[in-house]
Structure formats: structure tokens, C-alpha cells
Amino acid sequence: MAHEHPVPPAPQRARGAAAANDPFPGVEKVRDGLWSIPVPLPNNSLRYVLVYVFETDRGPYLMDAGWNTDDAFGALEAGLREVGTDVAAVQGVMVTHIHPDHYGLAGRIREASGAWISLHPADAELIHDRYDDPSDLLTRVAAALRRMGAPDEELDTLKNAAMPVRPLVDPVVPDVLLEDGARPEVPGWDLTAIWTPGHSPGHLCFYEARHELMLSGDHVLPRITPNIPFHPQAGANPLADFLASLDKLEPYEVEEVLPAHEYRFSDLHTRLEELRQHHRDRFAEVVGLLRDGPRSAWDIASSLTWSRQWDDIAGFMRRAAVGETVSHLKVLEVDGIVEVADGEPALWSLSEKVAG
Ligand SMILES: [Zn+2]
Ligand SMILES: [Zn+2]
To answer: Which residues hold their Cβ within 5 A of ligand 1, which is an ion?
Structure first.
């Protein structure tokens, strides 16, 4: 699912180019032979995904694709023409993760060009249950929602909250699986895949060593904190994965970060620390809420500070908010700070050593 971002953004920095009312960006030249094409997202506050185009003597290679809509395909076609090439010439599509705004259109590009599509295996294996035949996954989502404490009257809406986007995804099977450290074959460019699970179990960033560029997908965005959902396909401790994946980018010399949304930025290491601090603040807020006694995840989520009032967070956003709360609780549980009594709902409380 497209990431939704119910958490408040890190303190705004001077450069706010992704604000909702700013002009829609155009096709931009990032470096010689490297372009950024904004591909529009329907009904989504992020407004666009940035598709990066690597020119080579064989033809262009893309990073990420967009949703499977005519508008998106048309924008990509027009963008490729603007940089002097054509969708039929595309040789490969490197998808950072399987959310519909990145992967949805890849199949249509392959149909038009014969390009290969790549994904990390941990995301590739989620495709069938998520997009082809989600009935079993929906059952598991409903059970998880009951454990979280979702009220009966909201259960059906929340269970099905991600279903409207299914038609916007062409659930194709990738041709190439890229593991951590893999070097996709893109002639003239020195790309290495970096496995950065958290936002999605198979999320990949890509480092381009020759130009010291970090293509960060949704893992690191300049202004927004990516949603780290806890759901049946998220793995046992997705927020711990995400925090480790932030640390994993620290060693890289990076001149510019090329994210999949918002805008390019230069200070990767500052941004990594802001994201860590956001989650430290969140852990403290959750622990504070548990000082009064055991609560369900739903109850905790509805008491946390979000970028808007809880009552205004509905549908998929609400599910993402509760899922993100559980992601925090899970890290605290593994660290021995909270405990959980399983049930419907499961009740979370401070562990004895913390409660004192
Ligand atoms: Zn995403
Ligand atoms: Zn995205």
C-alpha cells in the first residue's frame, strides 16, 4: 500500500518544496544522463512519485514506476520523450519496494518495452497474497485488528482499507531478484542495492558510487517520516528493522539523496538522526501513556499526538496509525520495557522493572 504518513513531520527545514500547494515539479536533470520524472499519484497527498532515469548506450533504465493508471503512464511517456528517449526503449525497471506507487506500473512498462523488472526477494514473495488473492491476508488482517482493539463497527472498513488500490497494481512477477549488495547491470553506472527493510520488508536503497548518490526510495524522505506498519506481512519487528536500516546508510559518502517523493536533498546524515529522534520521542510518548495502567494498542494510538485529530484520521490512515503504534510497542516489548497480555484486545503495560 502507498505509505500514508499520519505522524507529524520532523521540524520543517527551510526548504519546503514538497508542500501540498507548491507547484508540481517538472522533469529535472539530476546529473549528466540522469533525470527525475514526477509521475502523478491519484488522490494522494504525496502527489507524485519521482521516477529516476539512467541513460545508457543500450537505452534508459528506470528506478521505480508509479501507479498503474493511464495518467501515470502518460506522464512517464511524456517525461521520457522530454529527455530524448521512449518508453519502448526502456531496458530495466529497478523497483525499490512493492507499494503500488512504486511497483504498480512496472508491468505495463515491461509490456511496452520488454524491460526486466527487479525487486528484493522479501518483497517479491508478498505479491501473491497481497495483490493476486488477498482473501487469506484479509482474514489475518482482521484478526490482527481485533487484537489491536479495533471497535467492531470499524472492523470491516479497516480490514478492507487497502483494497481500493488493488486495480492500480499490475501484479507481475519480477524478472530479477536483487539481494543486499547486488549490482544491477546498468551500463556506465556504478549501482549497488542496499537492503533496508522496515517501511517494507524488501525495501531497497541504491548507492551510485561514481557520483556519490543515494537513491533512497521511501526509506529516507526529506520531510515526511515513512510509515512503519505492523501487519501480517511486515515481519516480527519492523521498526527495529527500520532503525537498523537507518544505521546501515551511515557509512556512505553521499553528495545528494534522491528520494522517491518530495525533493532531493544533501544532508543524509542529519536526516537519519532526525528520523531516529522522531522514534525516540515516540517511544517516550508511548511509555508515558502506559504509566496509568494497561491499554490496548487502539487506545494508545488514539491518545498519541498525530498530525491531525484522531477523529479526522479514517480508513487506511487509521489502520496505519494503529499499526505504527504496534510497531513501537513491539520494539519496547523486545527491549523489556513493556509487556503484553494476549487477547482481544491484547493489553500492553509497562514491565515491572520499568513500572517500579
Ligand atoms: Zn512505500
Ligand atoms: Zn511511496
So the answer is: 3, 99, 218
